[in-house]
Amino acid sequence: MERDVALRCISSMATKTLLGELARLLGERAGGAIDVESIGGVDAARRVRAGEALDLVVLSHTVMGALENEGHVARGSLVPLARSSTAFAVAAGAARPDLSSRDALQRALLEAPAIAYSTGPSGDHLIGLIERWGLRASLEGKLVKAPPGVPVGGLVADGRASLGFQQYSELFEVPGIDVVTAVAPEATATTVFTGAVASTSAEPDLAAQVLRDMGADALAPVYARCGMSLVRADSPGR
Q: Which tens digits make up the pLDDT trace of 171-184?
């Protein structure tokens, strides 16, 4: 028998595993299931802006700030939850390129037949890096943008890209790939994912309480298991 849904949450794919775990742990306290839908961040923000009936929204901190300013999430309800770093992926068993320095990373990008990246913050970072390094023209035709909601790791696993760049939390559980975390400092991007109460929530007080519970220090091991770190109350970013 299905449990009643107490709250509806929408998020980007980066926090899918984490929010699934948190929803399972906190659902009983909420008095029903916490239904989490994780999709491409661009589509998630679009649906929030369209006024869909939701209780919680978890997206990158930058996007959440914009949604708060636009009135789509309750002002003052933002709670930074998870800090995520980026990594590269190669096909499982393939030779791992040296990505540990700027020169080595540039060489690997130029030698890669195809490079996959996401529509989210990690993709924005990689494209910005490529442009700052003056490599955009050299890599034109080799850059493969993953459709919203499609993991970059999947494109690497099925051979559509030889190198992929995304949040570590979106790569580490994808079958058919190996993850390379030793990368040049310039390629290391940290994104904070923040939650807030949707302006359309029918249960704003309950949603706010669940959001506070999600940021409890005791849940730090859950964040670590999901490839992210908890943004603690006394740390930068909250």
A: 998 999 999 999 99
